[in-house]
Amino acid sequence: MAKHIKNLADFLKKYTCNSHISNDSMIKSCRCLEGGLKVFCPDIIYIAYISELPDTLPLSEVINLLVIGDKEMPLPFMKENKFNWILCDSSLVTLPGLINLTEEFFHEELTLYQYKEEMISVLGDQDAIKKMLEITYRYIGNPLRVIDSAHNPVVSCWDEDQLDEPQWMDYKKNQIFSQKYNDICSTDYAFQRHMLNSSTPYIMNYPEIYKHRLRILRIRQSHMNIAFVSELEYNRPFTEFNSELLQVFAHFAGIRLCNDTHFYCSYDSPVSEVLLYVLKTQQPNPEKIRLLIKKSGLHFKKYLYFIYITDNELPDSREKMVYICTLLDKFFTGGLTQIIEGKIVILLDSDQCLKSPLEDDRLQNFLQILNANHMFAGVSRAFLDLTHACHAFEQAKKALDLSRQKDCQGHLFFYEDYILEDLAETYLLHNPQVHMVEPGLNLLMEYDRIHGTALMESLTCYLDNQLDLQTASDRLHIHFNTLKYRIQKMKDITGLDLSKIDIIIRVRLSLIVLKVTE
């Protein structure tokens, strides 16, 4: 950030009594005024007593002066527009003191340049945010932390394991703000307005719960709050220069986090806060959910669903996701649409508990959007309570994963169709295959091997088509009666009666296990 003479005037405002700045010149250094000097550099500010000013006006176009008032300012210097001058009170500062203060002012500019260089050097590092915060801590000296837009910890930095600030230590341990903090913030309207509209830090002073003041700044990209950085006034008093460093950190952190597809992005909305809270908190507090819903003005129907949308990491992923998210936010009026971990997540509600929360026309339109933009979506089962949101969110993601494992064609997949596959995979993580597969199926596979038949294939097709003989025989390209004969043959070999629901479930699970482990 370039230094100007007005910046210096602000920096020295405790010591100044008057100023005349007709041209806010950029200044790069300071120098004591030497007697007889005729030519002045426009990017240098000259320090002197008024009594040391030359008797005749210099020839230079722009002259910047920092003077101590040991006498009245000469009239020509007051009228001439080519002069920028800052007048300091001789009772408040001496000439050596003024020189030291001005050098400190320019030292900040050098420090800021060095700080930016260090930040740039780690920007591409895998642990960039952690390293950038450590660099910032060396310059600022106060405890720092970064939280994401759902108020979950990202990284923190201070020397001591124990910090004499209970709210910070409690947050570090539980990864959630205290109810006292939430209550105070919810009634601090000045803070809320600042967090929505301002790009400068806000100093929070809550002596009821904090021992120290807190300075907080939002980290933004593409009109979104993606994180917040906080400084605790613990080791050193807050300064304007440290505020400037904090804003530089927010700029670089925004660049880094914006390119991290696993990082949360939040629109400035109470509605988004609901979704982010229930998905990022391992054990959501039902009372907090109720308060967030009330704050956002939401009214859900009986059943809830999650839709998880991805583009399979295409090169233009982020830009496309922002565009599609905006499109779907308008398409799903009344739902919650959010970019999470670089993907689109939609929360929908319904009066009915069905496989799809979308009716036929809307479902077809949604499929057209997915197909046209090469997107893929997984849909959870219906659930009743937002405290179960994380589980339903995983279901929507699993619907996509399981569809890929089965090489399914299409763009929209429902977890409802893959419950048994998920159950089988989960079982096999801790148990051998032999305990899941019906013994009679081993006899059927052996019969196929010896006689060159395809009874296992016919059985799978029959079950995949909901025991519909006509559909299954058409898919197998065999006669209806041929399939009936094969089903009877299967019963004779295995002893399994496929007219009983419990046997059908056991056989279905067995076929899935065999498919997974083949």
Detailed description of the structure:
The protein has 518 residues and is an alpha/beta fold. The protein folds into four domains: 102 residues; 136 residues, GAF domain (Beta-Lactamase); 145 residues, Alpha-Beta Plaits (2-Layer Sandwich), CATH 3.30.70; 85 residues, PucR C-terminal helix-turn-helix domain (Arc Repressor Mutant, subunit A). It is built from 19 helices and 15 strands. The strands form three sheets. It has a five-stranded mixed beta sheet with strand order 1-5-4-3-2. Strands 7-6-10-9-8 form a five-stranded antiparallel beta sheet, sandwiched between helices. The chain starts with a helix and ends with a helix. It holds the Pfam family HTH_30. It comes from Clostridium boliviensis. InterPro entries: CdaR-like_regulators (IPR051448), PucR_C-HTH_dom (IPR025736), PucR_C-HTH_sf (IPR042070). This is Helix-turn-helix domain-containing protein.
Number of strands: 15
Named CATH topology of the largest domain: Alpha-Beta Plaits
Helix content: 40-55%
Shape: elongated
- Estimate the mean pLDDT confidence: 85
**What is the CA-atom radius of gyration, in angstroms?**
35 Å
| Strand percentage | 15-25%
Unreliably modeled segments:
none
Total of helices: 19
Number of domains: 4
Measured between the Cα atoms of the first and last residue, the distance is 64 Å
SSE inventory with pairings:
Blueprint: H1 5-11, E1 16-20, E2 29-32, E3 44-49, E4 63-68, H2 75-79, E5 83-88, H3 95-122, H4 128-140, E6 144-148, E7 153-157, H5 166-174, H6 179-187, H7 189-197, E8 202-204, E9 214-221, E10 224-232, H8 240-258, H9 270-280, H10 286-296, E11 303-310, H11 317-331, E12 336-340, E13 343-350, H12 360-372, E14 376-379, H13 389-405, E15 412-414, H14 419-428, H15 439-451, H16 455-464, H17 469-476, H18 480-494, H19 501-517
Parallel strand pairs: 2-3, 3-4, 4-5, 14-15
Antiparallel strand pairs: 1-5, 6-7, 6-10, 8-9, 9-10, 11-13, 11-14, 12-13
Helix pairs in contact: 3-4, 3-8, 4-8, 9-10, 14-19, 16-17, 17-18
Pfam families: HTH_30 (PF13556)
InterPro entries: CdaR-like_regulators, PucR_C-HTH_dom, PucR_C-HTH_sf
Protein name: Helix-turn-helix domain-containing protein
